[in-house]
């Protein structure tokens, strides 16, 4: 059995144990599967935590107290070795389907089903999770209970589907050459975007993207930005507003980047640093440089990228500039 298969089985067992746990027992599950000094990277307001006890107290206990009957609905499940440092990773992406029974982070309960979008990266060594990147779309949950903390999105936010080909759950070994093809496309895309940053070409022609993207690509962006479909609409509804509304864009690298078969993924801490000049997310600009923590998951079809699921820790990016959308929501829900 390959190391990838061993790690997939370990993470599947971990997920099964988590799904059977509650807020009183989840700590034991985390201690079983995580190393004592596991480094956990979570979105704002959870941020960085060290060790299973801190992860449990900060995230999982409150989460399982607020949400009942939590089901992990995976759309992509993959494993591989990061080119950065040779670390072994397993990535899961999809939604948590939950019953929203108690308030969470100041977001009022709905008493109804909710879908919480997530991406979960786990690095494994000697049978234990030693690093974890855990992203969820908090703004997407807020939208589901009727709270819109940002102006109108340029794209369209909804409950996103998984891969059109329904082959994202990769449990069997795949020819490494297929992953190499996918990663080569991702690396070329990173080079092309880096050149745009250097030249500040924020109204670039579609031919730049057509080198790596299919013309009818789909980009599933975070709530607050939304999804776009086809290269022209991606440029109009996300890329141009993003590039024109931010200056001094710097790519900081990734903690993890790898591919398996037709799928690739990465996350950074932070991936990007930039300064808003006004317009992005419908908000004014300023002189505050802010970091962006970003997840990308890609599907390749033939020799082009076809689908891309993206999560951005927008609450963290906004908080660095003095806008804490969670605190503002608490005040609106409970005015003095």
Task: Describe the overall structure.
Residues 11-131 form the SnoaL-like domain. This is Nuclear transport factor 2 family protein. It comes from Thalassotalea fonticola. It holds the Pfam family SnoaL_2. With 336 residues, the protein is of the alpha+beta class. It has two domains: 3-144, Nuclear Transport Factor 2, Chain: A (Roll); 176-326, Nuclear Transport Factor 2, Chain: A. The chain contains nine helices and 15 strands. The protein has helices at 3-20, 26-33, 52-66, 138-144, 176-199, 207-210, 231-245, 314-319, 325-333; strands spanning 34-42, 48-50, 67-81, 88-100, 113-125, 128-136, 213-220, 227-229, 246-251, 256-260, 263-267, 272-276, 290-292, 294-301, 304-312. The strands form three sheets. The protein has a six-stranded mixed β-sheet with strand order 2-1-6-5-4-3. A six-stranded mixed β-sheet has the order 8-7-15-14-11-10. A hairpin with a 5-residue loop joins strand 1 (34-42) and strand 2. Helix 1 packs antiparallel against helix 2 (26-33). The protein is globular.
Describe the secondary-structure layout.
Elements: H1 3-20, H2 26-33, E1 34-42, E2 48-50, H3 52-66, E3 67-81, E4 88-100, E5 113-125, E6 128-136, H4 138-144, H5 176-199, H6 207-210, E7 213-220, E8 227-229, H7 231-245, E9 246-251, E10 256-260, E11 263-267, E12 272-276, E13 290-292, E14 294-301, E15 304-312, H8 314-319, H9 325-333
Parallel strand pairs: 1-6, 7-15
Antiparallel strand pairs: 1-2, 3-4, 4-5, 5-6, 7-8, 9-12, 10-11, 11-14, 12-13, 14-15
